[in-house]
Amino acid sequence: MDADRTGQSAPGTLLSVRGAERTFQVGGQKIPVLKGIDMELRPNQLVMLRGRSGSGKTTLLNMLGGLDVPTKGEIVFHGHAFHKLGDEERTAIRREKIGFIFQTYALMPLLSAWENVELSLRMAGAPRGEWKARVSHCLELVGLTKRADHRPYELSGGEQQRVAIAKAIAHRPAMLLADEPTAELDSQMGAQVMAVFREIIATENVTICMTTHDPTILEVADHVYEMVDGRFKAS
Ligand SMILES: Nc1ncnc2c1ncn2[C@@H]1O[C@H](COP(=O)(O)OP(=O)(O)OP(=O)(O)O)[C@@H](O)[C@H]1O
Ligand SMILES: [Mg+2]
């Protein structure tokens, strides 16, 4: 990769965002949604984004993961300047280094828990010989070894979300992005998911950035960014 496409960030920083703005164009009208975001993610951190509906959390999370690019400003992940790269290059980085978890699990309905996790290794191009041990390890991490053969509809919501976590970390991403991963779960299952996140950070060398509305969940964060109308409130 040439020097122009790489980015500099402070040592020990996994991702840095500088002056990021995102404006959407709808029917000739410009809608500013992110209005100057500065943030940092360091290795092995659990960072949360909170804020009212419509404040811009999902828009920002999509940019952290390279699904979208800022209208203005910089996003540097793992030495890659996302704001300077095209779709294909960002997709390649995302496949290798980033995992996503959504509110509604996003599992393949006809595949078992095992096959869902295996699919992610297949997509990432991991050598076939490594699949079995890695799938087994990831399902064990989320406490679902005994449910490996179940399809999503044969699992509870919390179990489905834990399969989604196993799937998202199987290819050993450096960063996991989760958009309201506990919103569909009751408080006990939500707490289980958070315990799994803590375990993954401790053992898998990953940083997790997630959005949530739940005050009890915010308590376990290493850092919370509060978003108000496209900006972070000083904390
Ligand atoms: N593709 C788009 N085109 C136009 N406007 C958009 C687009 N995506 C998001 N927006 C607008 O940006 C604002 C922020 O949306 P976003 O989804 O980031 O909010 P959020 O904080 O995740 O809210 P919630 O808590 O409801 O999920 C909203 O007003 C939304 O209408
Ligand atoms: Mg959202």
Automatic annotation (TrEMBL):
InterPro entries: AAA+_ATPase, ABC_transporter-like_ATP-bd, ABC_transporter-like_CS, ABC_transpr_LolD-like, MacB-like_ATP-bd, P-loop_NTPase. CDD domains: ABC_MJ0796_LolCDE_FtsE. Keywords: ATP-binding, Nucleotide-binding, Transport. The keyword Cytoplasm does not apply. GO terms for cellular component: membrane protein complex; plasma membrane. One of its GO terms (molecular function) is transmembrane transporter activity. PROSITE patterns: ABC_TRANSPORTER_1 (PS00211), ABC_TRANSPORTER_2 (PS50893). The lineage of its organism: Bacteria, Bacillati, Bacillota, Bacilli, Bacillales. This is ABC transporter ATP-binding protein. It comes from Paenibacillus antri. The keyword Nucleotide-binding applies. Residues 17-235 form the ABC transporter domain.
